[in-house]
Amino acid sequence: MPPIDSEFAPLDGALPSGWSVPRPNRQPASVPAAPPKRLGRWLFLGVVVAAVVVAAWTLRRDWIEPTPPVHEGVAVGRTLAPALSEALAKGFDAAATLIESGQSIKMADDTLKSTFDTERKAAFGKIGGPFLGSIVKSGEEPKDEAQRQQFAEAHRAIARGLRGTR
Question: Which pTM value belongs to this model?
């Protein structure tokens, strides 16, 4: 292969004065080429995009909270009905035991009410509370009117399930 300058030698005299033939910029083979500056920019962009994706993935639960469909409330009501019946039955059993042992009717009635109240709260905490808490957290108010409506519909759905209707 002839030297680079000899390739362009015939053109040197053919150009107007002040013009020159561009010579290829070739580095000696022993010097490695520097990586392009664009590679660093692409790496930086990739790291930034990855950080945004990780942050969005971590915080997505705060952006979109999946809420159960209201028709699940009917199933919750159907599951809650036997638990509430059992709670009331435990209250009557406790009252009957007191009456048989000679205690006053007022004391038996108070025991029936307190036993039923304790048992129904436990049953609701296990069955109904998680369903309603998935819509509005316990002790909090709905964020907006749409969530308030959904919460009211969930209560109506549970009532339909308790009644045995759809």
Answer: 0.54
d(CA 12, CA 108): 120
What's the domain count of the chain?
2
Q: Tell me what the mean pLDDT of segment 2-7 comes to.
A: 53
DSSP state letters, 21-81: PPPP----TTSPPPPPHHHHHHHHHHHHHHHHHHHHHHHHHHH------THHHHHHHHHHH
Assigned domain for 113 exists: yes
**Mean pLDDT confidence for 10-14:** 57
Going by pLDDT thresholds of 50, 70 and 90, the confidence category of residue 17 is: low
C-alpha span between 78 and 83 (Å, rounded) = 9
Whether 107 maps to a domain, the answer reads: yes
- 13 belongs to a structural domain: no
Contact 161, 80 (CB under 8 A): yes
Please state, in angstroms and as integers, the Cα–Cα distance from residue 39 to each residue in 26, 45, 53, 70, 152, following that order.
22, 10, 21, 52, 56
Dig out the tokens for 11 from the structure: 């053109």
Q: Which residues span the domain enclosing 150?
A: 71-163
Read off the pLDDT of residues 96-149 as tens digits, 9 standing for 90 and up: 999 999 999 999 999 999 999 999 999 999 999 999 898 888 889 989 998 899
